[in-house]
Amino acid sequence: MVTGHGRLERAVRLWLPVGFFLVLALFPFYWMAITSIKPNAELYNRNVMPLIVHAPTLKHYVDLLTKTSFLLWTWNTMLIALVSTAISLVLGTMLAYPLARMRFAGAGLIAMTVAAVYLVPQPLLFIPLADVINRLGLGNTLTSVILTYPTMLVPFCAWLLLGYFKTVPKELEEAARIDGASRVQTVLQIFLPLCMPGFISAGIFAFTLSQNEFLYALIFLTKTTVRTVPVGVIAELIRGDVFYWGQLMAGALLGSIPVALIYSFFVEHYVAGLTGSIKG
Amino acid sequence: MTAVSEHLPGVARAARRRVSLSVWLDRESVFSWLLMAVPLLFLASLVGYPFVYGMLLSLQDRPVAQTGTFVGFQNFVTNFHDPVFWQVAINTFIYTGVATLLKMVGGLGLALAMNQHFRMKNLVRALLLLPFIVPTVLSTVAWMWMLDPAFSVVNRLLVALGWPKPGPSWLGDPTLAMISIIIINTWRGLPFYGITLLAGLQTVPPELYEAATIDGAGGWQRFRFVTLPLLRPIILIVTLFSVIFTFADFQLVYVLTHGGPQNATNLFATYAFDIAMGAGQLGLGASVALAMLPALAALIVALTIYMRRS
Question: Complex ipTM, two decimals?
Answer without folding.
Answer: 0.90
